Amino acid sequence: MITFYTITNWLLIFSYWLLIAGVTLRVLIKRRSVPFAMAWLLIIYILPLLGIIAYLSLGELYLGKLRTKRARTIWLSTSIWLRNLKSHQDFYDKQNSDIAQPLFQLCEKRQGIAGVKGNQFELLTTSNSTLKNVVQDIQLALNNIEMVFYIWQPGGLADDVAKALMAASRRGVHCRLLLDSAGSVEFFRTDWPNLMRNAGIDVVEALPVSLLRIFLRRMDIRQHRKVVLIDNHIAYTGSMNLVDPLFFKQESGVGQWVDLMARIEGPIATVMGIIYSGDWEIETGKHIPPPSVLNHTTLPLKKTNDHTILVIASGPGFPKEIIHQSLLTVIYSSKKTLIITTPYLVPSDNLLHAICTASYRGVDVKIVVPRHNDSILVRWASRAFFSELLESGVKIYQFEGGLLHSKSILVDGQLSLIGTVNLDMRSLLLNFEITLVIDDDKCGRELSRIQNEYISQSRLVDALLWSQRAYWKRIIERLFYFFSPLL
């Protein structure tokens, strides 16, 4: 009997260490960044069983067998469509500014598409104006409406959008709605999904969250895009979820969310539609055929006040780390000014180094973040980066007019990046995201005006006072910094 228990104990111990060794080897062979790998290994060694479960659930970029297969197939067909689009040279702007040229070259090589010209562009700075414009455009829709959002929360003006969408569907407009399961959990608990489906809208819950799927797919990969497409001609994207700020997260104590959205008319909407069709097929297995004929009716060109726009789509199935590489490219391209607004500042080591290097080169670098954040983890982790940024001369502004949720970058007043990407590892390496790039000084001046309005409502972080902050705060910052590769 003693021999049996001894053997059993040794087998359990051997199995335990074999499991840890196996997961350790798995972490190392994935060739992740050193901070990322070290963070996971320390978690696994400090909390072995919980750490192993966490790593198998969250540690690897795994979309699931079926979705991964669809994603690979979709990118091949999308690449063919984009190559065919190249034959319509009148849609492309062959001239880019010196600041934009490296980024446009990168994206053309990796995504197969350059900047598309002939677009009308407008920045919307309030949720009211965005939602009312969306309702008006839905009411005028003739053929198709596609939407994808991370969060749709009923209430206020969001309900007006839902009613307009149902009315459009009843009059024969084909409406598709793709909502992230985790972000829109409250929406799927209401009667709205059934009401919409009864009205003829295709409502799909993207990347369903379930304990049964936890080992079949990484649960924290999320559909984070925010896009509205109407008749392959009008498009919206930016930082705003489909919510009315008066009804959204009022209990969090951070004030109303402040967002930035872009409304575009022109051929870039069709390119964004190709991205949407990929997302739809990954989730449903159903293909949305692209426009069969690319002509001036399908892709209307405007000669006056037109903008050249590049779309960067990132996430599973799209070129690996494309948005991370794009951000590094524009930061290293900056010569005079660099202004960044982001709600979550937890950059990779490479991005942090690029930002600091830009400041050391003499670039006037400003970063605007919310003073109060809805995420305690991110709030403390982001502050761990402040010291290094301040030491390099970066100006950090803490916005006090609510939760600044705008995600924008302006380089030398010429190159504007607006979209859904946060400066954190989740947006950079995991989620489905979308970013617009506009190479135009007029748009740059408008974005600069908006960013300066944010700065006027912000408090500049004093480098000397920051260096004298309480020691216990530094400990908490470093503790959460440890988890920054996982945030």
From TrEMBL:
It is a multi-pass membrane protein. The keyword rRNA processing does not apply. It is found in: Cell membrane. It comes from the Bacteria. GO terms for biological process: cardiolipin biosynthetic process. Belongs to the phospholipase D family. Cardiolipin synthase subfamily. ClsA sub-subfamily. This is Cardiolipin synthase A. It comes from Candidatus Erwinia haradaeae. The gene is clsA.
